[in-house]
Records
---
Amino acid sequence: MTALIRRLLPLLLALTPLPALAQQPAGPPALAWKTGAEARAIERRIDALLARMTMAEKIGQLNLFGRGDGFRPEWVAEGRTGAVMNFTAPAEIAAVRARVAESRLKIPLILGLDAINGFATYFPQPIGQASTFNPRLVELASYWSAREARAVGINWTFAPMIDMTRDARWGRNMEGAGEDVHLASVVAAARVVGYQRGGLATTAKHFVGYGAPEGGRDYNSVWIPVSQLWDYQLPPFRAAIGAGTFSVMTSLSAMNGIAATGDRDLVTGILKQRFGFRGFVVSDFDSVRELINHGMAADRAEAARKAFLAGVDMDMMSGAYDAHLADEIRAGRVPAAALDDAVRRVLRVKFHMGLFDEPPFDPATAARDLATPASREASLAVARESIVMLRNHEQALPLRSSVRSIAVVGGAATHQEDWQYSDNAGLPRVRPPKLPDELSRLLGPDVSVSFAPGLATHCNLAAGDTAGAVRTAEAADVVVVMLGEDCEQIGEGTSRAHLDLPPVQQALLDALITTGKPVVVILHTTRPFVLTRFEGRVAAILQAFHLGTEGRTALAEVITGRTNPSGKLPMTFPRATGQVPIYYDRLPTGRPRLTDARYETGYTDEKLEPLYPFGFGLSFSRFGFDALALDAPRFARTGTVSGSVRVANTSGPAGKEVVQVYVHQRVGSRSRPLRQLRFFEKVEVAAGGEVRVRFAFPVRSLGFHDDQGRFRVEPGEYDVYVGNDSNATLTARFTVN
Ligand code: BGC
C-alpha cells in the first residue's frame, strides 16, 4: 500500500481543484525526508554529534516533557530534554527555545502539540475532513493547521490520528477517518503531506489498534486477528510512512494481550524493520509508566527498560527514561547500541527538519500568520464539502423563496468558541460567525431570522427555556435546530454506552416537531448518533462533524442553496446502539438475511441494515450512474483494474458527486468481505450535464493476508459495484488471472 499511496497521492491531490485562495505571505519550508547525498551527509553529521555526546545528553534527547507538569525550562539548558510539548504562547515558546543556546551541544528542540484540526483558525474535525471525500481539502486543512502552529514556534504535531474507527461508542472517532481502510489510508497520507508542507513534523498514531477497544471503551484491551491487523489496521500506517511521517506514536492500549508500548514485535519488528520506518517512535502520554498498570512491569525501571527495548525511542511525560535509563544501561540490561540507535532517530528527524540550520525564532512575526483571510477561506472551503445531508424530505432544502421567517434554535448555533483539543489561551482567536447572522446575511431583509437557545447552555445537556423555543418556532415558517453532544463528551476518554441524542435535546426536538413546522436538524456531533427515533419526522438532517470556524457560514450556504452539499459518511450510522460495531465491509455469513426468517443473520428486534450506509450523502441534484465498462474482462495479478462509468446530473443545480467503486471477490480461500471500497473520486457535474469518470486500482489492492501475515492475491472472479454509496448496485465482473 505504501508505494501505491505514494504513487496515487499526487494524482489524487491534483484531480480536485482548489478554490482560489486569498494572498498570503510565503509559508515555512515544507518538511520532507531528504534523500541521496543529502541524507548521507546527515548521517555523517549525526555520527559526529553522537561521538561528542555524554550518556546523559543522549538520554536527554529521548525525554519529552510538557509545559506545567513539573517541567523546568532550565532542563533545556542542561541537555536534559530534547523535546517539549503543550507550549502555545509565542513569547513562552521563544523563551524555552532560547535556552538551547545555553546548552553544551546546542541541539535544537522539537516542540509538539495536538493541532488536530487547527490552531487559530479551526477546520472540521478530522472525521469531518474525511467526509469531504476530497483528499485535496484534507491536505489543505492540515496545511493551515500546521502553518498557524508553526507561526508561533511549534514544529511538531501529535497528528494525524490514523486509527481505524468502526465503533461509534468510542469518543475518538472524531480524530480519525472512519471505518474504511482505503479512505483512511488516503486521508492519512493527505494529512501527513499537508502538515509537513505547512512546517510541522507529523506523528502517525496510535500504533496500533487503539481505535478498536472492546465495547468501544477508551483504553480498553483490543483483540485483533493477524489477518485483520494486516488488512485493516496497518495500511493507514504504511500510507503515512509512505507519505513521509517523521514520527509514530504507540497506542495506550494492549493488543492481543501485549501493551503496544512494550511490544517489540510490533514496534521494532513491524514498524521499524518490515516497514523500514527511519523516524522516531514516541510513547503516548505516560504510556511507558502505564506498563505497570498493564501488569507488564513491576516498577518504573522495568517499564523504561521494556518500552525502550521494544523500540520506543522517546518517552512522553512519564519521566521513566529520565529516571532509569542510565542505570539500566550501566547495569547492562539495555545495550548502549540501542541508545545510540534511538538518539540517532531523534537527531535524524531534527536534521531532516532543518532545525540545526534554522534562524532563531522571532515571536514578533507570529501574528502575521494566524487567522488570515487565506486560512479562513480554506476553512470555509473544507466546511462546505464536509456537510453530509442525510435527509431532505420533499426537498425541504434549500429553503423555498416562499419562506419569510426562520426560527433558529439551540445554543450551538450561536456560541463563539470552537471546540479545541489543546488549550491555546492567549492567542488571537477568531470568533466564529453565528448561524442566525449568516442566514440573515444570505437571505436579506425580506426574511426574518429569530433565535431561541432552547437549552440552558451551548453545551447542550441542561434543559432550558423549551416553551420559549416553541413560541419562536410557532411564529416562523421553518425551524432550524442545532443539536449536539455535551462539550465534555467529545474526544478522548468519552466513550458512550448510548448513542441517542441526550434526553433534554430529544425532548426539545419533540416539542419543536409538535409545532407542525418543518424542522431542519443540524447535528453538531463528533460520531454517528442513532437518529432512528426522529429521522422520519423531520424535514431535513444535516450532519456537521464540528465544522470549525467557518462552519455556520457553510451551513447557512447549504440551507439557502448557495452550496450544494457533497459530503459522504465515513462511518455507518446505526439504527440502534446494539448494532454497533456496524460497518459495510463485513463478511457474508452462512445464513445471509434473505427472507427475514429466524435462522438468518440479524436481530429479532431491529433490522440488520443501518439507518444510513457508509459513503451515503444527499445532494440537491440527482445523479445517475450508467454505462459502466471495464477496460478488459481479465486482468493480470500484477496489473491494474481499470474502467469507466457515466455520471449524469439528471435534476437540480450543478453539484459534486463522489464516484465510489467497490469490489467483491466471489470465491476465495477465506471468506471475503461483501464489498470493499477500492477507488473514489469527487467530480463536479453541471446541471443537466454528464461526465465519464475513469477509475483504476492495482489488482494487488484486492489481496489480503492470512493468519500468518502472508499476503496473497487470488485468481478468480471479482464483482465491481459502482455508485454513490456502499449500497451501489451498478455492477460488472472481471477475472484475475
Ligand atoms: C493521547 C494522545 C495525545 C497525547 C498528548 C494522549 O492522552 O492519547 O493522542 O497526543 O495525549 O496530548
Note: DSSP finds 20 helices and 26 strands in the chain.
---
Amino acid sequence: MFNKILIANRGEIACRVAATCKRLGIASVAVYSDADANAKHVAACDEAVHIGGSTAAESYLRIERIIEAARATGAQAVHPGYGFLSENEDFAHACEAAGIVFIGPPVEAIAAMGSKAAAKALMHAAAVPLVPGYHGDDQDPQLLQREADAIGYPVLLKASAGGGGKGMRVVERSADFAAALLSCKREAASSFGNDRVLIEKYLMRPRHVEVQVFADRHGGAVYLFDRDCSVQRRHQKVLEEAPAPGLDADVKRAMGEAAVAAARAVNYVGAGTVEFIMTPTGEFYFMEMNTRLQVEHPVTEMVTGQDLVEWQLRVAADEPLPLTQQQLKLDGHAIEARIYAEHPARGFLPSTGTLKHLRMPEGVEFAIDAAGLGEPGRKAPVRIDSGVREGDTITPFYDPMIAKLIVHGATREEALARLARALHACEVVGPHTNVEFLQRIVASEPFASGDLDTGLIERHHDALFAPGKKPFREALALACAALLTREGGTAHGASPWDALSHWRLNSGYTQTLGWRMIDDAAHDDGAAAFTVVFARNGGGQTSSQTPAQTLEHDGVREAFTWSAGAGAHEFRATIGDARVSGRVFVDGDRFHVFCHGEALAFEWQNLLAHAADAEGGEGRLTAPMPGKVIAVLVEPGAVVEKGTPLLVMEAMKMEHTIGAPTAGTVTEVLYAVGDQVTDGAQLLVLDVQ
Ligand code: MV4
C-alpha cells in the first residue's frame, strides 16, 4: 500500500478521499487554487501545494503542475476524484510517464469508453445488450436515413463523442430526419470537434439504472449492485439510491453480470460505473461507462458496508479485490440528495455567496466515526459529505454543491422517512438552495412509491413549484421576537435607555414593525410588504382579558410572548394558542427563520429610514452574483420601460439578464463588455421619472 498520495481535486470528493487516507494511515497531499487557499479540503489533508489561479484551467486542469506537485511532495499515487482530470487520457498517461500511479483505469480503458460508437461496437462483441440502432463508421446521410427508417420512429440521434445529454436529437418522422441529422452534426462538430453520430430507437419513459463495478489486476471483477439515478434535471442528477427499487432478482443479476462483461471487454481496472437505460418493463441496454468513482458512490457504500475509496487504493497498489462476488451482500436501502447553492425559482441559476449559517442534520461525516479513525461508520443512518463549512464562500469558479445528504434504512420506506426528516433539519443562510425543492420531490407520490423515470421532475413540475404552505404566523412571531430582542425591547433604538421606554405605568405602548416577506418560491422583489403592531400593556392593565403583550397583523390581534432559547439564535414564542421554537439568523435587516422544518425569511423595513428614502427615487441595478459583463444593451440617455433588458452577465457558464426594475432613463452605464464584476456591484444608474 502507498504511504503518501496526492488528491488532484477539491471540495467534498477531495475531503472524502482524505478521510479514507487518514483512516488507513496514508499521508495525503492537497492541491489548491487561489480561491481555495482556505478551503476545507486543504485542511483535511496533511500537506498542500498551491497550483495556480482560481479558474479550473489555471489550476485543477494543469497536468504538468499537478505532476510536479506529486513529485515535489513524494506522493506515490494520484487520486483524480471526479470531474476535472478524472477521465483525461493525457493525465493518466502523464502520471504513468512520471512513475506515479494513476488511481483509475488504464489509459486504454478510458479511451475505449470515450467514443460512444466504438464503445457500442466493443459491447456488442461482449454480448452486452444494446438499444436497437446503428453505430457504424459509414456516415453517408442516405445510409443513415435508411438505417433510421429500418429502426422505426421515433429515433434518437446522438453525437458519438457526446455525453451528459449534449448533442442529442429526437426524430419523430422519416421526413424530419435529414434536417435533424444536419443540426445534430453541426452541434457535435462545434461542441466536440467530431461530427460522428449514431442512431438509436428512442425509448419512452426510461429509467437510468447504473451498476458499480470493480476490477483488479489479477483477473478479478465484481459488481457492487445497482443504483437508480432517474431523478434528474437537465441531465444533472438530483436524487440517487441503491439498490434500484422494484427490480426482479434475475434482472438485477443479469444487469450486474452484463456490467462485469462490459468492464472485462475493455480490460478494466479500478472503480467504474456502467450506465444502463431501462424500459418500464425491465429491459436494460448499455448506455455508457464512467471510468471514475462517481458522485453518488456513497449510496453503494451504505448498502454494501464497503469503503470504495479504500478499494480503489488497494487495487491501484496491485492488491486483489477485498471481496468476491459471493461475499458481497446488500443491506437495506440508501438514498442520496444533492444539496446545491442554486435558485430553483430562477431556473436553477447557481447562487453564490458566503455561507453565513450552515447547519446540517446530525450525522456522520465521510463514513468515519466521531474519533476520525478506526471503524468506518457506514451504517450510521445519516451521512453528510461536504466540502464546505460555515463561513466558506460558494464562488462562481466551481460546482456549487454544498453537501450530499445520504441516508440509510432497513427498507426504502425507512430511508425515505429519514431523508425527509434530515432535509427538514438543513439550514442555510447565504446562497439560495434547492433544499425545499428536494423536500417536495421526496414527499411527492411518484418518488415515494418508487415510480421512477427520467421525466419525473418535468411531469410534476407544477406541483413541485406550487406555492407552499408555510408556518407564516409562527415564523413571523419568531422574527418579531428576534427583532425586539436585538433592539433591546424596541425596534427603533438599541440604547439601554430606549429599552426601558416601553415600560409605562398605567398606559399601553405600541410599535409598528414593517416587514417584507422574502419568498424563495417567488422572486425576492415581488414579495409582500406588511406591518405588525406590537403592543405591551402597562403593568396595571394586565388581566386575563387583556394579555400583557400582543401582535396584530392583518387586523387580527393575538397574545404574544417570547423568550430567548438555550443556544444562540434560538427563540421560543407563543402566538395565540400556538407555541413555536426555532432559530433566527439576522443578516443585516434580513431575518432568516427556521421552524417546523421550514425556512422563511423576512426583511425588516425600517419605516423611518424608508420614509426618508422615498424622496430619492433612484433605481439601483446591481450584479446578482460575481461574473462577467457579456453585453450592454443600452446607452446613457436610453428611455426604458419596466423590464427592458439592460445588460447581460455571464456567471457560472449561464447568462443572466439584468432588466429595468421600473420605467426610467439610463443616466450611466458603469461597466463595459468584458469587465469582471463583484457580487452586489452597481451596474447602471437609472433615473426614475
Ligand atoms: C436515450 C433516451 C431514450 N432513448 N436513449 C440522456 C443522456 C445520455 N446518457 C443518454 N440519454 C438518453 N438516452 C434512447 N435510445 C433518453 C435519454 C435521456 C436520459 C437518460 C438518462 C437519464 C436522464 C435522461 C434524461 C433525458 C433523456
Note: The two ends are 73 Å apart (CA to CA).
